[in-house]
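#struct-queue
[09:14] JT: dropping the first one here, sequence first, then the structure tokens:
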Amino acid sequence: MEEEQQIIENSKTQECEMTIENKTIFQKEYIRTMVWAGHAADEKYKRFKLIYNMFGLLAGMMCVRCAVFDITGQQTGGRSFIYIYGAVAAVCLYIGMYGMDNQQFKKSRDKYKDIVGTAFIYRMNQERIEIAIGEKDVISFGWNDIEQIRQDMNCFYIYMKEQELCFVMDKRGFITGDVAAMQRLLRENTATQ
């Protein structure tokens, strides 16, 4: 009985001390998904996007209302309002649906375009995260250096506090460990996921 307890405790200790390894080749598609994942918790960004979209929809509805009144002859002189409301709707909807995301995407594309095709090898354990970039650079940092970690169906996104960097870890690239082990390690070491 005591031997079984000892074996269970040893396996739990080994599981906690396990190093997770992952190899990810950085792809161009990661840049756009990285931007989207980064804004998932940004309340200010989401609020502005919602305001632009709401004003665009309201202006669009007012444009349709003025057009209907003009066509039916119930109101005269509304043609200029049709153009004004139509222009406001187009501008607000463009900014809210496309412009804000596209601006962030362009910034990230310029920042990360040189590393497309580069291999990143991640080694993580309870104490540290080590990332080998290409064949030359190795970055090592602690869990407290991470601002947030997000995930989607295909990747984990690790956002750093100081450098304003994001590292992308493809869920299909695990060498040792798996997605469940990674999620368990994240729960144990970070407050945000």
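[09:21] JT: and here's the second one, same format:
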Amino acid sequence: MMNRSAISTISVFIGGFGLLFALATAVVLGASSGLSAAVGALIAIVNFILFGWIVNRVVGGSVKKRAALMFLLIAKMGVLFGLIYYLVTRQWVEPVAFMVGFSALVVGVLTGSFSYLKSGSRSAGRES
């Protein structure tokens, strides 16, 4: 189940990898690329937190509320795609560096999930 603790843990991992990727990009490709990677990582964190917030409400809501929240989830994706399109086409970010930062979402979700599950199984073992 995706609870607040899981969302917080995974968000920290996304942020950590985002910072690491942004710093590495800045060192290898320069400050402008590093800033683009940092913007990608920031958008990845906000995207994940909003996703977790919506999913928690979908799981616990009524059928009518679920339908509205599912629409909100689709709208969030549309806004995300529109924002990325706008940033890239206006050349406010460098596309490759931006995606390096945004890729922290995938790496952070994978490693954060494993970490959360591992810490949860340890604490469950101590209680029994």
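[09:30] RK: nice, looked through the second one.
[09:31] RK: The longest helix spans residues 31-60.
[09:31] JT: good to know. The two ends are 21 Å apart (CA to CA).
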